[in-house]
Each structure stands twice: as structure tokens, then as C-alpha cells.
Amino acid sequence: MPKKLQNYHDYVKNELELKPYLSSSQIEDRLKERYVNLSKVHSKTVYNFVENIRKKYNIPKIKKDKVRMFEKLSEVPYGSEAQVDFGETWMQTVERKRKKVYFYSIVLSHFKTYPLFPMI
Q1: For residues 75, 80, 86 and 87, what is the CA-based torsion angle, rounded to 10 degrees?
Q2: Which of 43, 45, 53 is nearest to 12 (CA)?
Q3: Would you say the pTM of this structure is higher than 0.70?
Q4: Which residue in 29, 41, 45, 119 has the fewest CB atoms around it within 10 Å?
């Protein structure tokens, strides 16, 4: 078990017992929020620490059922609504160096209605 995280053993164990669905990254976030002097460790170290505690105390990871709520959007005039997504990627410059670029994409609404009975 990673010794750098040993001081947080009881906290992590209690969190996992109360909320077994938590991931190691969620545990890491909670540790960082709760303990400002938390040792700098790699996320993989936290993962191993959490997995060791799960194994030692037989705390399996229980997945929550995720129900996605969705519904058909109402039809609106073309371009009256939009969806915006943001992203980032690495590109190569003309000097063959890597540069991180940020971008966004906008998709305007475009609903097409179909008649119930095709015209003949």
C-alpha cells in the first residue's frame, strides 16, 4: 500500500463504505478538497491505494444506474437555436513544433418535418 497516502487510510475506507460507487478519481478529488497538505502523488498511486482498500475490506465498486433523461426537441425555425461544443487538440506548426489549439463548434438548429402521407 502506498505509504504517502497511509495517513488517509481511514478517511478513504469510510468514504468507500458509505459510497462504494465512488471512483478513485473522485476519491482523489475529495482528498485534495479535504486535506490541503495532501502529498503530491500520481493519480495511479491513488488508484492503487483505493483498490488495495477495496480488496482488503471487501468493498466492491457498485455502479449506480444512470438514467439519461431525454425527449424530442420541439421544432423551431432554422437557426433559432444552437449547440456549442468546446475542444482542444495538438497541431503541428510549419516549424514542425507542437502547439495546443482550442476550438469550438456551433451547430444551428435544422429540423425537417415530413408529411404523414407522402405526396404522389
Answers
A1: 70
A2: 53
A3: no
A4: 119
Tell me the pLDDT tens digit for each residue of 69-107: 778 777 788 888 888 999 999 999 999 999 999 999 998
> For residue 99, which of 88, 112, 114 has the smallest C-alpha distance?
88
Q: Give 81: exposed, middle or buried? Use CB within 10 Å, 0-12, 13-18, 19+.
A: middle
- pLDDT 10s digits, 23-34: 999 999 999 999
Place of cell 463548434: 105
Closest CA to 87 of 61, 105, 65: 105
Residue 39 CA: distances (Å) to CA of 2, 6, 7: 11, 11, 10
Cβ-contact 24, 15 below 8 angstroms: no
Q: Taking a C-beta distance cutoff of 8 angstroms, is the pair 109, 82 a contact?
A: yes
